[in-house]
Amino acid sequence: MDTTDPFKPTYPAPTPLRPLLGLTVLVIEDSRYACEAMRLLCLRSGARIRRADTMRAARRHLQVYRPSVVIVDLGLPDGNGADLIHELVGAAQRPDVILGISGDADSERRALDVGADGFMEKPVVSLAQFQESILTHLPDDRQPLGPRALPEGEVEPDPIAYRDDMVHVADVLEDAQDTRALDYVVQFLGGVARSAQDTELLRATDALAAKRARGDAAASETAVIAGLVQERLAEKIAI
């Protein structure tokens, strides 16, 4: 099968200031807050971004588009992101770069074991870290020419995106008797709270995670998280 990309000659050349120019990054991430950070990082790096929030949506997208870079959250609402990474690694038209991402550092081994080129631990807000995580794995012909100073600074996602994530968690918690739902809340909120530096919510999530790991009942911990989520939804955010 001919895997030559017919559009490759039309890619704009990357520059030292915009080293990801010409790349399309597909971010498969269910957190609006984390995805907003990725959008800002791509914008400042010169890359185009597309987003999918489930494995199902990602697979539909990949039937139509051919992204240069795919960043896969390891914990998605409809499955394990590692399974999708495994599919991408074995695809006939493999993306140039496949990265795993998670708020759980222990997930790095899982991503690399199924063939990911690299791993990023949330929060990912550093422009230098983001660019290097991709450039390290790109072929030579997609690298910017000339010397390139590492960019300084971090992006600050819109707090409205964080509120969107709280709305999502509130919806999931309506079915708190479902143990799978609780496990998803632990995974999702852990990454979101860490990204937003919400230490109070992160502590509550860690407490729920500990109870779930021991197989203990966690009604009180779930109630605490539900209350904290409602508090954040009640806060007025200036637009």
State the gist of this model.
With 239 residues, this protein is of the alpha/beta class. The chain has helices at residues 32-45, 55-64, 81-89, 107-113, 127-135, 159-173, 179-196, 199-214, 219-234, and strands at residues 24-28, 48-52, 69-73, 75-76, 79-80, 97-102, 118-121. The protein folds into two domains: 8-142, Rossmann fold, CATH 3.40.50; 159-234, no CATH class.
Mean pLDDT: 90
CATH topology of the largest domain: Rossmann fold
Number of beta-strand segments? 7
Total DSSP helices: 9
Assembly state of the chains shown: single chain
Helix-strand pattern: EHEHEEEHEHEHHHHH
Strand residues, percent:
5-15%
Protein name: Response regulator
Domain Response regulatory: 24-137
Keywords: Phosphoprotein
Modified residues (4-aspartylphosphate): 73
Structure report:
- Residues 24-137 form the Response regulatory domain.
- By secondary structure, this protein is of the alpha/beta class.
- It folds into 2 domains: 8-142, Rossmann fold; 159-234, no CATH class.
- It has helices spanning 32-45, 55-64, 81-89, 107-113, 127-135, 159-173, 179-196, 199-214, 219-234, and strands spanning 24-28, 48-52, 69-73, 75-76, 79-80, 97-102, 118-121.
- It is globular, with a radius of gyration of 19 Å.
- The N and C termini lie far apart (51 Å).
- 39% of the residues are buried.
- The mean pLDDT is 90.
Describe the SSE topology.
Blueprint: E1 24-28, H1 32-45, E2 48-52, H2 55-64, E3 69-73, E4 75-76, E5 79-80, H3 81-89, E6 97-102, H4 107-113, E7 118-121, H5 127-135, H6 159-173, H7 179-196, H8 199-214, H9 219-234
Parallel strand pairs: 1-2, 1-3, 3-6, 6-7
Antiparallel strand pairs: 4-5
Helix pairs in contact: 1-6, 6-7, 6-9, 7-8, 8-9
